[in-house]
Amino acid sequence: MLEDTEWLMDFAFFTDLLCHMNNLNVKMHGKNQFIDDIWAHLKAFKLKLNLFAGQLSKNDLSHFSRLNSIPSVNEEKLKNYEYGLKKLHFEFERRFQDFSAIQTELDIFTMPFNVNCEAARSGLQLELIELQSNNHLKQSFLNMPKLEFYISLSKVSFPNLISHAQKISAMFASSYICEQVFSTMNLRKNYFRSRLTDEHLASFLRINASHFEPQYKELLKMKSQFHSSH
């Protein structure tokens, strides 16, 4: 089989392609990502597929190192690979077309200072104009995470923008958190933790899945008495 040049070319091409797809998969399973981050990774990968197809049509194997290591890859094979990449790009477009339908909504959440106010729905237009005209808020947006920025906005001045941010940030971007929770549950709930109650397990899982810091000072204020032995 290793002497079959055509089989080796196919094997090398699909190995290179799967490496690119695996890189996409790793990026999409990162922690603390919102739906707009996932969509950005998908858009980038679709552009890469177009780039790959165009380069293969010119016999350029820059991004297919394993295929490039095989001498004299014939043009017919390259045409087949180019067609396969275009078909894969079409499938990505088809399967993730729902993202394209909410592109403007995602843009408002991701870059509210750059979005065209006229393209936004009427309930957000006036608040976007106020936001984009405020240089102080623009600087704050550049210097803090998106979620913290929207939390810092005035509920009186920007109620609709805050509501919009809550809706977008609440969308599940990937199954990463679910997988993380199940892994934690399997580690915590075992034979040696026989006294672990459902309530304790739920608390463990909530702490593990959340990145929020406990308000220690507020918790201490709620305590009326402290035990020195503790």
UniProtKB/TrEMBL annotation:
Transmembrane segments: none
InterPro entries assigned to the protein according to its UniProt record, in alphabetical order: HATC_C_dom
Domain of life the protein comes from: Eukaryota
Molecular function terms from GO: protein dimerization activity
Pfam families: Dimer_Tnp_hAT (PF05699)
HAT C-terminal dimerisation domain segment(s): 143-201
PANTHER family: EPM2A-INTERACTING PROTEIN 1, GENERAL TRANSCRIPTION FACTOR II-I REPEAT DOMAIN-CONTAINING PROTEIN 2-LIKE-RELATED
Protein name per its UniProtKB record: General transcription factor II-I repeat domain-containing protein 2
Lineage per the UniProt record: Eukaryota, Metazoa, Ecdysozoa, Arthropoda, Chelicerata
Gene: GTF2IRD2_390
